[in-house]
Amino acid sequence: MAVSPDKQAPEAGITTRRPRR
């Protein structure tokens, strides 16, 4: 679940540690 949002998020890197979801 950390790879899916990581590709959708514009800042691929912060989403891995801080999911904006």
From TrEMBL:
Domain of life of the source: Eukaryota
Region (Disordered): 1-21
Name of this chain's protein: Uncharacterized protein
Native species: Arundo donax (Giant reed)
